[in-house]
């Protein structure tokens, strides 16, 4: 499974979601100018990356589950 490119892509997408989520939570916790400037942007990035991650995970399950 670790050699499957679709699995690796899905795992990277999940890690990207976690990274953006961590940055967003950190900015929210600190508050201030960074959160005011980037809070909504981080939420939009997280939602977009999360959608991509879900599509990749579903594609992996569907394509590899048939075999």
From TrEMBL:
TM segment ranges: 46-63
Pfam families: HIG_1_N
Keywords, in A-Z order: Membrane, Transmembrane, Transmembrane helix
Membrane recorded as keyword: yes
Domain named HIG1: residues: 1-67
Claim: Membrane is one of the keywords in the record: yes
Entry superkingdom: Bacteria
Name of this chain's protein: Twin transmembrane helix small protein
């Amino acid at each position: 499974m670790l050699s499957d490119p679709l699995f690796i892509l899905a795992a990277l997408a999940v890690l990207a979601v976690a990274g953006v989520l961590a940055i967003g939570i950190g900015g929210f916790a600190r508050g201030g100018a960074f959160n005011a400037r980037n809070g909504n942007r981080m939420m939009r990035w997280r939602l977009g990356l999360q959608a991509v991650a879900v599509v990749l995970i579903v594609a992996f399950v569907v394509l590899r589950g048939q075999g």
